Every structure is written in structure tokens, then in C-alpha cells.
Amino acid sequence: MSNKKPETRNQKPETNNEIRVTSYIKGKWLTEGSETDLISAINEEPIAQLIDSEIDYKSALEYGRSVGGPALRKLSIHERAFKIKFLAAYLMERKEKHYKLSSHTGATRKDSWIDIEGGYGSMFVLSSKARRELSDLPFHVEGGTERLSRRGTFVGQHICVPKNGIAVHINAFNFPVWGMVEKLAPAIMAGLPCIVKPSPVGSYLAYEVFKDIIESEILPEGSVQFIAADKPGDLLDHLNSQDSVSFTGSATTGKKLKSHPNIVANSVQFNLEADSLNACILGPDVTPDMEEFGLFIKEVGMEMTVKTGQKCTAIRRTIVPRERLEDVSEELKNFLSKTTIGDPTQKETRMGPLASSLQSQRFDEQIATLEDVTDTIFSNGTHEGAFTSPRVLVCHQPMTVDKVHEVEAFGPMTTIMPYDSTEEAIQLANKSDGSLVASLFTADDDIAAKITLGCAPYHGRFMVINRHSAGESTGHGSPMPHMIHGGPGRAGGGEELGGARAVLHNMQRIALQGSPTTLMNIVQQHIKGAKTKEAPKHPFQMYFEELEVGQSLLSDVRKVKDQDVEDFANLSGDHFYAHTDPDAASRSLFGKIVAHGYFVLSAAAGQFVHPEEGPVLLNYGLENLAFLAPVAPGDTIQTKLIVKRKTVRQQREMDMFPFGVVFWEVEVKNQEDVLVAEYTILTLVKRKNKLDIDLV
Fold first, then answer.
1. How far is Cα 555 from Cα 604, in angstroms, rounded to an integer?
2. Which one of the listed residues 182, 208, 273, 408 is annotated catalytic?
3. CA–CA separation, 155 vs 73, rounded Å?
4. What is the CA radius of gyration of the chain?
5. Nearest 10 degrees: CA dihedral of 528, 533, 537, 539?
6. Dihedral of the alpha carbons of 14, 15, 18, 19, in degrees to the nearest 10
7. According to CATH, what is the number of the domain 278-486?
8. What percentage of residues in the chain have a pLDDT greater than 90?
9. Contact partners, residue 215, CB within 8 Å, separation at least 6
10. What 3-state class would DSSP assign to 225?
11. Which residue, 405, 516, 421, is CA-closest to 458?
12. Which of 145, 177, 469, 529 has a Cα-to-Cα distance from 111 of 20 to 30 A?
């Protein structure tokens, strides 16, 4: 196939041009304002109109804070996460209409899959991670308790609480859907209402998705608002210390917004994800006959052409051993020559146009700047409307040419840069002064370790690929919702995604200090040293709703016998000398025979487990086990079981019973009241009532 562009100028868009992209402020769509045509990247014909209305931003912000904020904060983190899950499912059901509209941004079906289903998939992942890893409370209890006094009557605990503010999201044009929902999801789960402002380019797609969000009625009133405008007006003038701003776009614009007087004066949290000259390194061990070489060429070529290179994570700098310069150049040209450029709705098309003719013009200008210090080795001369050609440049002395590490041409391009040593490869990768991602293709794990650690401080993500991982790799340019997205220096220093971290990033971390009992009452989690109360009956005979944090059971006393230790050794097969050989044990750390730690664990279970059928369904986990003191034959043990915390779990259709998870703190002490073992067990416990999902 040729990379010559098919004729598209006379084709009509599949979608009508009557879409009116309007603002959604204070629960209403603003339908009056100045109109600007939004142009299809395919044929440069109007696809929608942007209605730029007069907006009282101060009032809009206050509406989000006073209406959306309280509604979100009264829900637990898990309830908010459920809402994100249900919203993702709702949007996924409507994905095909989003796909049709996405093509007018210049995106192929594959490009749109990254933006649309990648966005909704991120919502599912973030929701799941939040429900698994964060507290089932309006706030999150983070980490363990810190003992701040000698007797333990004064302790500390970190928690993350929702802010009483609003999150402002100013998004880029290249991913209208993913860029919006990957920010919305964690903010909403954090209890933070949002105002979304997409780039005018492609805003019709963001608008249609946002309209579906409102029509779903899943999120509480006031939790989301939408700005249809070229510029955000005086929005930033009215932010306070409880608010936050997330900006994705150029480093220049980002720095300008970050230095806004009101942002600085009120210390408004500002998250910046800026452009970055990401690097991909071919390891010095890789030769053209190795599988890693072909994988490298494919990765660079794909990153140049997917989304027409309009990705903040695209490979702008291709760093190769000098002796491989010619091999890489020829193979990359061969790859690109087979790329079909044209109408993104056609199956044979592998690369569509840039997002607009203006973007194409800017791309050409940036390429022209780079051509002053490089040689162009590939370009087919396609320059019509928003369509352009992939460009491959070569900089023969990249260590001394700063411009190739400073100027980003935002489109389908890369600059090949040769290196003469591993140290030089690291220096080249780091010369961009910060990027979102770098990658390395090598079959040598020692080389991988050296280059990775050398590059790590300068990049937000580092991907190492060989033949073993390539088959399941998500690729250089694919941020995953489980992992941090952001980077130091030029990349902005921001932090997005990262699973549950994304939620916590939107919350306020606070250090609580006080008595164990007082803090237990605040955080709804048992804290060592807090007062407990005897359960009215055996806790294993109580339903999830009946159990309260701090309820406890104190077992009877059991004496450990020589026969117990011998029997456990025979049953388990663990005949370690400290448990079975008196002579050897006398020379051990303990000076005598001691019971197995796991015997103590098992014996403790025997002290608190209720044998009869009851609400406890099963024990499915154990955390933070520590054996703190030896138990010898002749010693006694007594176990205390305490309700540490509770978490509701979603009812699945195949489950027989509605249930929750109860975390039990277990303390085992000897006859001298010395703690010999402690741990947490996790059990599934029946609920009396099913979880009414509709209520969350």
C-alpha cells in the first residue's frame, strides 16, 4: 500500500453539522452566545458550532462547591467509585456514536479506541482500584498508626479527606475523551466536583460524551460542569486554596497558567502535564538479526503514526548505537513507506490527518526549525489541509546540538540520534530535561539495569522491552490507569492516574494526633491501645451490620505442651531443629525448644473460632503477621479478637449471600502479658440486607 492520501475533500461527514457545543453551568445548558464553526479534519467542512456564552465563573465555581461538593462528600469513597463504574458502563454502551464523531478529529478506529474505550476502561480500573485499596468511608485512612509517646497514650494517624473546593480541568485537543474522563473519575471519587474545559479543537466529541454523562443522571447535581469556550476567561481569578487546576497542553501555556497571580497567592494545587520529547533507546547489544531489533522499529513507527503522532507520549527522539544508524534508518523508512494515509473512516487507512489544518501548519513550522540542524531522510511531501507526511530526521552529533532536545514537532515525526557508549545513550535520553516516558529495547538485563537507573530521575515512566514481554506489552506510548502518568522538568512535574494514588492526589492529607480511643472514634478503625468493648455474643455469630469497630472477644487460656510441639512438627513436616532437637536448640537464639510460630497461629485460631454455622462465611486472608516473642512448652497463650474495620463488598449475581469484609485484629499474649504474636485476618461476613446499588 502507498502512503499517498486518498481524495477526501469532497466527502461529506457522516455526522450532521448541527451539533451545538454549549456550556453546562449550574445545571443548565447555555444555548446563546457567539458561534464559531468547528471543522472536520477530514474535509475541512463544519462539523459543529461552538457556542461561546457569557459565563459568571465566580458563580459557577460557588455552585460546584456548595451543591456538588456536599452531595459527593456525603457518599463513601466506595459509593463514589460505584458511580464511576456505572458511568463507565453507561458510556461504553454508547461508544459507537462516539466513534463516528471521533473520526472527524482525524482519528482512525484504532486511534479512537485508545481515546474512547481506553478512557472508559480507565474509569473501570480506577473504580476497581479505589474499592479494593481505599477505605469504605467518606475519607481514606492511610497507613498505620504512629506511636508518638512512650506509653502509647498519644498517637498519630494520617487520613486523606475530601477538599471543600472544585477541580478545574483544562484539557488538550489530542484525546478529547480519555483526557476528560481520566481526570474526572479520580476527582469524583475523591469527593471533588469538577469543571471541564476542553480544547475547542475536537470539543464536539468531548461535548457529546459529557452530554451523555449528564443524561445518565448517575452523578449528583453540581458535581460536573462544562465550559464551551476558546479561553477560560477570568475562571482562575476566583479559585481558592481548596480548589485545584489540572492542565494538559504545551509547557509554555502551562507555566503561564501556573504562575497566575491568584494561583500563586492562594497556593492552588496545580497539576501540569506538558509536552515532552520522549526517547526510545536501542540497546548496544541488539543487532538487526535479533527479534528486539524488529520490535524496536515497529514501536518507533507505530508511535509516529498512531493518532498521527499527536500524543504527548510519542517517540520524538530515537536513540541508537552509531553502528546501527544506517540499519535503523532503512528499516524505519521501509515501515513508514507501507503506511496508508487517508480518510480515517476507511479500513485501509493507517494514519489520518492532524487535528486541524492549523496543527498541520504548526507542525511544518516546527519541522522547519529542526531541519536547520538535522537531515531529513523520509518525507513523501503530503501536505494538503490537515494531512501531512511522516518525517524522519537524523542528527549526527546530538550531544552538541541542543535544538533537537528542545523543539517538539507535535505530529508524525522522530529524530534519529546515534550514540557511541552506554553512558552517552543515558545522557542523550536525559538531555530533554524531563519527559513523560522513555523506553529501552534490549535482550541484556544488565544493560537494562544500567540504562534504566541512569535515566530514571528524568522520566515519569520507563519501559523495558525484550522478546519475552513484547507480546503483552501495552507499548511505549500507552499510559495505564494502574501506573503514574506524568514526568519531571519539562514534562510539568504533574501526576495523574496511578490507581488509587490518583484519588488520593485529589484529597487533602492530614495528620491526626490524640489518644488511641479518640482517633479510633474519628477514623472508624481500631487503633492499638484504644479501649475495646466486649461483644454481646461471639463475634462469629454476628452479622456484618451488628459488628462494631472495637468490639472484642477474649479467649480462654491454653497451656502449650511438649506433645503439642511434637504433634505439630509431625503434622506439618516442619522438623526445624529449634522445635525438635533439644541439644541443637540449646545453642539457638532461644536456648531451648520453642513452639513453631505457625503452631501459635493455629492455636490462636482454635481459641477464637466459633464451630457452629453462622454469618462468617470464610477466612480469605491474613495480613501483617509478626511473631514477637517465643512460646515454649509450659507457657500459656490467650488470644484477643478485635473488630478492626469493615468494608462492604458489591453483591455479584452469582453470590449466594450479600456480604462484607471484616478485618479482625488478633493479639496473642503469654502468661506474663507479653505480646507473642499479632496479625490481621480478613473474613467474609453475611449482611442482613442486600446492598442497594441504586442508592449509590
1. 9
2. 273
3. 27
4. 30
5. -20
6. -160
7. 3.40.309.10
8. 79
9. none
10. strand
11. 405
12. 469
Between CA 320 and CA 417 the distance in angstroms is 6
Give pLDDT, residue 3: 47
Rounded alpha-carbon distances, angstroms, from residue 231 to 54, 170, 253, 375: 12, 10, 12, 38
Give the CB-side neighbour count of residue 82, counting CA atoms within 13 A. 18
Residue 434 region, left (φ>0) first, then alpha (ψ -120 to 50), else beta?
left
Identify the pLDDT of residue 12. 44
Q: 371 an active-site residue?
A: no
| Statement: residue 144 has pLDDT above 80 | yes
Question: What's the confidence (pLDDT) of residue 184?
Answer: 96
Cα 479 to Cα 477: distance, rounded to the nearest angstrom: 6
268 pLDDT above the threshold of 90: yes
Please check whether residue 284 is in contact with residue 425, taking contact to mean a CB–CB distance below 8 angstroms.
Answer: yes
Asked whether the predicted pLDDT for residue 576 surpasses 50, the reply is yes
Distance between CA atoms of residues 349 and 103, nearest Å:
12
pTM of model > 0.85: yes
The pLDDT value given to residue 371: 93
If you average pLDDT over each of 206-215, 336-345, 374-383, which comes out highest?
206-215
Catalytic annotation, pick one of 194, 280, 312, 455? 312
CA distance 71 to 193: 9
CATH number of 19-138+163-273: 3.40.605.10
Q: Which pLDDT belongs to residue 290?
A: 96
Q: Are strands 140-147 and 155-161 parallel, antiparallel or unpaired?
A: antiparallel
What mean pLDDT comes out for the span 76-103?
A: 94
Cell numbers for 593, please give them: 525448644
Q: Give me 505's grid cell.
A: 492526589
Residue 10: which pLDDT band, with cuts at 50, 70 and 90?
very low
Displacement of CA 195 from its chain's centroid (Å): 20
Query: 673: burial class by Cβ within 10 Å (0-12, 13-18, 19+)?
Result: exposed
What's the mean pLDDT when you consider all of the chain?
91
- What is the pLDDT at residue 483? 85
Contact residues for 231 (Cβ-Cβ < 8 A; gap 6+)? none
Q: Which three cell numbers stand for residue 399?
A: 550531544
All residues at 6 or more sequence positions from 289 whose CB lies less than 8 Å from its CB, including other chains: none
pLDDT digit string, tens, across residues 179-207: 999 999 999 999 999 999 999 999 999 99
pLDDT tier at 6 (50, 70, 90 boundaries)?
Answer: very low
Cell representation of residue 247:
492542565
Q: Which three cell numbers stand for residue 289?
A: 538479526
Residue 160: pLDDT band with limits 50, 70, 90: very high
| Catalytic (active site) residue 160 | no
Domain positions in the chain are 19-138+163-273, 278-486, 532-695
Q: How far apart are the first and last CA of the chain?
A: 52
Q: Return d(Cα 614, Cα 279) in angstroms, integer.
A: 59
CA distances 106 to 44, 275, 352, 378, Å, are 11, 20, 5, 22
User: Which residue in 215, 73, 81, 82 sits closest to 139, CA to CA?
Assistant: 73
Cell 552506554, residue? 422
Classified as helix, coil or strand, 273 is strand
Q: In what order do the strands lie in the sheet with 391-394?
A: 375-378, 391-394, 413-419, 315-321, 278-282, 438-441, 462-465
pLDDT, one tens digit per residue, over 417-462 is 999 999 999 999 999 989 999 999 999 999 999 999 999 999 999 9
| Burial class for 473, CB neighbours closer than 10 Å (0-12, 13-18, 19+) | middle
Residue 396 has pLDDT above 90, yes or no: yes
Candidate CATH numbers 3.10.129.10, 1.20.120.80, 1.10.260.40, 3.40.50.970; the one for domain 532-695: 3.10.129.10
CB of 461 closer than 8 Å to CB of 276: no
